[in-house]
Specification:
The chain has about 375 residues and is an alpha/beta fold. Helices cover about 35% and strands about 15% of the residues. The protein contains 15 helices and 15 strands. Strands 3-2-1-4-5-6-14-15 form an 8-stranded mixed β-sheet, sandwiched between helices. The protein has a 7-stranded mixed β-sheet with strand order 9-8-7-10-11-13-12, sandwiched between helices. Strand 14 and strand 15 form a beta hairpin. The radius of gyration is 21 Å and the shape is globular. It starts with a strand and ends with a helix. InterPro entries: Ala_DH, AlaDH/PNT_N, AlaDH/PNT_NAD(H)-bd, NAD(P)-bd_dom_sf. It catalyses: L-alanine + NAD(+) + H2O = pyruvate + NH4(+) + NADH + H(+). Belongs to the AlaDH/PNT family.
Length: about 375
Amino acid sequence: MIIGVPKEIKNHEYRVGLTPASVRELVSLGHSVLVESNAACGIGFNDTDYQAAGASIISTAKEVFTRSEMIVKVKEPQAVERAMLREGQILFTYLHLAPDFPQTKELIQSKAICIAYETVTDKYGRLPLLAPMSEVAGRMSIQAGAQTLENSNGGRGLLLSGVPGVAPANVVILGGGVVGSNAARMAVGMRADVTILDRNIDTLRALDSEFQGRAKVLYSTREAIDQLVPEADLIIGAVLIPGAAAPKLISAEHIEKMKSGSAVVDVAIDQGGCFETSHPTTHTDPTFVVNDVVHYCVANMPGAVARTSTFALNNATLPYVITIAQKGYKKALLEDDGLLKGMNVMYGKVTYKEVADAFNLHYTDPTVAISMH
């Protein structure tokens, strides 16, 4: 199979779909890999590194898209990239379609085979291709929140940990999954006053056992949120419904009740965000203020630590890239129900129900869509 790796073009996105080590694995199996020139210069790899691994260096993204049977990326294709996709071409990347109708519409029009990292599951129902970036984003959320609370960034001038004789910041984490648990580990390590909310009792038990009282764990109800919001200095939004738009847990009225200079970090912004007042931002201009509350809503947070993120992502995605390349997409999908759940759009049909429901589009079962081609 001919596999293409274009340079990411989203604002301050330095990650890359395949590292040289991943390219070497694919080439050793007889596949061809086309890498756009300077695709990974932001994380310390040059074209020579890729050539040494067996890749062909291509000067333009257009040529990469034109010549490749499968495109391996990191972030959702931007409009100029979507225009280069063609019927029957495989796209393997993060998509986050539920809050993004323009992308969904154009992927349908392209008739490409679009497999989303974030909805692939393993045999335990976990999200193995989302998990590594969730780990990164969860840990980064506390770094970002700590900086946002500084006066110079519009915050109320709090040190997350406090100092002897001065209380630490009050951190509330909405969601105890991969993002939330990693955020909690960072916040607890920085000696903040941490409360984690979740609706899964098993998750709460696991977190309670891990933190041994160093973080409070509460069942998430509207009343609990109502009580915690006014006292919070920093709220981390870490909720996820796979493939669907994130629920709006924090309303505009909640934001009005927060202390002046407090902060929110919406890690769920890729799926539309869990704060009613959120909208996507970039690393160039990461924050905005609503009712004196600083909002950090960067939609590709792990892109800021691109080298760590790229290696973590490749560790998870490479086995799937190899499987698709070796078997072809039909056999790969039909033999792995978890990979099949990654199929979001195929030959003009929406094959992930939550995406179809988000836009009132017709849903086609992915096995039916595959059988038609």
